[in-house]
Structure formats: C-alpha cells, structure tokens
Amino acid sequence: MKKLKVVDQAACMACKQCEVVCSETFYKEYDPDLSCIRIGMKNDAVKTFVCVQCGKCAKACEHDAITQNAKGVYTINKKNCVGCGKCVEACPFGVLRRAEGAEHPSKCIACGKCAKACPVDAIAIVE
After folding, report:
1. What is the pTM of this model?
2. How would you classify the pairing of strands 45-49 and 3-6?
3. I want to staple 96 with a disulfide (CB 3.0 to 4.6 A). Which of 49, 55, 91, 123 is the partner?
4. Which of 108-125 are b and which e, b meaning 16 or more Cβ less than 10 Å from the residue's Cβ?
5. Which runs of E-coded beta strand occur in the chain?
6. What pLDDT was estimated at residue 41?
7. CA 105 – CA 96 distance, rounded (Å)
8. 43, exposed or middle or buried, with CB in 10 Å at 0-12, 13-18, 19+?
C-alpha cells in the first residue's frame, strides 16, 4: 500500500512547505484550506496531519465516488461525486478538504510532492 507517512514528527519545523506545495500543485495558489496535508497543534506540540489511506471517506460516500486503486490509494471520482461532504466529515485527520465554493472535495493521492518539499525529511511516501 502506498501512502504518505510522518517518519520524524520531532524534526518538523512547521515551515508549512508541504502545505504550500500541495495547494499550489493542485490549485495553483497557496491556501492552507486547500492543502491535503495539515500542520497544526495538538497537546501543545506541532503535529503533522496526513492521509493514512484508512478508507473511512470511502465508507461514508453513498455514491461510490471514492475508490481504492491497485496501490491502495483512495481517490475521488468527480463524475460520481455529488459534493455532499460526508467524506470530509468522516475524515478523522481533517485532511480531506473542501474549499469554500468548490464543487468537490480534495484528498491526498500520495503523489509525494510534499515529501520532496520537506527540508527536514519529516514525511515520506512509503509502500
């Protein structure tokens, strides 16, 4: 299974380069609300929130718009998506995002661009 993983949380400097590259890659602008990786605080510590390809979004989708590919990555089929947002609500990590006014939500497709952008190698794509 291919997925994004936080391999060294302590190394994260909260520089947000991962968020920047994610939103710029898919939306051509930096907006933290568009990024499918999130840097935030939890228990007074910096925390990197990533999609672990758990499938809870797919289970919540009543229209079969989220399916798992051969590499184990869940993707959104925009032709089947009705934009109800149930998948966004089901995401336990808050990384399945729906920008204000967007027709469809976005989720991590394990492309690895955020891992390449991380200056301290805190995140990586793993199989």
Report:
1. 0.89
2. unpaired
3. 91
4. bbbbeebbebbeeebbbe
5. 3-6, 38-42, 45-49, 66-68, 74-76, 123-126
6. 86
7. 7
8. exposed
